[in-house]
Amino acid sequence: MAGEEVTQPSYNDISKPKSVAALEYNKKCIFCKIVNNEIETELLHCDEEISCFRDIRPGAPHHYLVVPNKHVGNCKSLSKEHVPLVKRMVETGKDILQKNNLTDLSDVRFGFHWPPFCSVTHLHLHVLAPVSQMGFMSRFFYRLNSYWFITADQLIEHLNSKGETN
Questions:
Q1: Which end of the chain is more exposed for a tag (fewer CB within 10 A), N or C?
Q2: Backbone angles phi and psi of 144, in degrees to 5
Q3: What are phi and psi of 94, to 5 degrees?
């Protein structure tokens, strides 16, 4: 917006995307603040479109959140045109796991909380590994085939089944 000063954040070893336009940023959203370096959080991945950081309440030994840099609502607000974004989020999660020497994807869970069971309304993919080491409550919160959690594959299938957006 005119008259607003935008400062370029500084980063140690990860190059950061340029500041996000006002319509792509929600000043009340904690994930928007993390992506824009307004809250000190170690970014494990950051490119022009996607960032990744550790969950502050890990449900597994490796629990990462992969988020779009632009503010995107929760998974229920997505359309078919968001399928490539969701797929890139999953690929980013896999890359982070590989960088952390986790190559057995059979013991990994990629998914989203389904509204109204979202604590943050900025789209975020949970990457949990190893699933076999998740505690009782984590197994409940990130449970397959539940009303509150949907796998990335299920979300992609759901979005692909929607009609074209106008």
A1: C
A2: -70, 150
A3: -65, -40
